[in-house]
Amino acid sequence: MLDFRMETFLTVCQCMNFTRASEKLNITQPAVSQHIHFLEKHYNTKLFRYEGKKLKLTGAGEILRNASLTMMHDEISMQNQMQKTDEEAELRFGATRTVGDVLMGRILERYLREYPDAKICMIVDNTQELLRKLDEGAIDFALVEGFFQKNEYDHQKYSDENYIAVCAPDYNWAEEREVLSDGLRESVFPGQAASFERKRGIEELFHERLLVREEGSGTREVLERCLDAQNFSIRDFDKVMEVGSLQTIRELTKAGCGITFLYETAVRDELREGSLKRIPLKGFEISHEFSFIWRRGSIYADRYKEIFRRFSV
């Protein structure tokens, strides 16, 4: 059982404020301070420090936070297993939306053929929400395409996936729309999609409507990091539409309502059938890992590795 003082410590880490932590725990602020002082004395190190008026974790505090989150996660997993000693253990895991929509059907079909009585609970959410659920013990492991702190989570690479820009095959670009408004399309664009086939710089897309996932999504974060590396941001697009559904983004893009950036595996069928087309971009060759992750240092690491092996067959 996790020591009540460790629970206090984790609550302070979450709130980064002793008073708010005391309110959340329904204990007095001096009691919170006493619990933290006990842990600092026990470990013979400072766990928090102030930068101006802001409370910050020390390096030692960060180590203890990571270890405590893993201990809390493992205790919840252990309680679940103890309550189901006469039943097959339930798989409680998460998948990001791209992974859930594109890969998990095939993965779970194989798994259920081998284990037809398996009990499975899969939560589909964006990367940041799944990391939070992992830390809280709501799930045991996750398959994600987003970024995560590798010093906090053990991981196995599931696959490398290409990340591309796509649009409808007959999409009208900003310069084509301008030409159309002048009634000069045939003189400037005598061939179909003549301007589409050339490679564009990413800044040439800024006049288009960008269809993008919500903040916290791994798919969006890949784009944000790519833009940042070129001193751009999503705010450079004239029109941005946030959509939490991968399927809706695909449908809107096929309808010519904008452009989007997705993993190639998420639009493989559409590219093959011709309802979407890849946008050639200069200097935009990106791939990213899909990863199987769990809390670093978990006592159930061997179990998670075995599940990963079964998922990867």
TrEMBL record:
One of its GO terms (molecular function) is transcription cis-regulatory region binding. The keyword Transcription applies. Keywords: DNA-binding, Transcription, Transcription regulation. Residues 1-58 form the HTH lysR-type domain. It holds the Pfam family HTH_1. The keyword Transcription applies. PROSITE patterns: HTH_LYSR (PS50931). Signal peptide: none annotated. Belongs to the LysR transcriptional regulatory family. This is LysR family transcriptional regulator. The lineage of its organism: Bacteria, Bacillati, Bacillota, Clostridia, Lachnospirales.
